[in-house]
Write a structure and sequence with these properties.
Blueprint: H1 2-13, H2 15-21, H3 23-41
Helix pairs in contact: 1-2, 1-3, 2-3
């Protein structure tokens, strides 16, 4: 989980560079965060 969270921070820190390198990573991180938030709400 920590690694995913760290990747999320890096993504927001360097959105343009991150999008150019791996645009699919944003979806993976977003899906992971969405799942985590969904589980936390339950």
């Amino acid at each position: 989980m920590k690694r995913t969270f760290y990747n999320g921070i890096s993504l927001f820190s360097n959105p343009i560079n991150y999008w150019e390198v791996q645009p699919a990573t944003f979806r993976c991180v977003s899906d992971s965060l969405a799942i985590q938030f969904g589980n936390n709400r339950k």
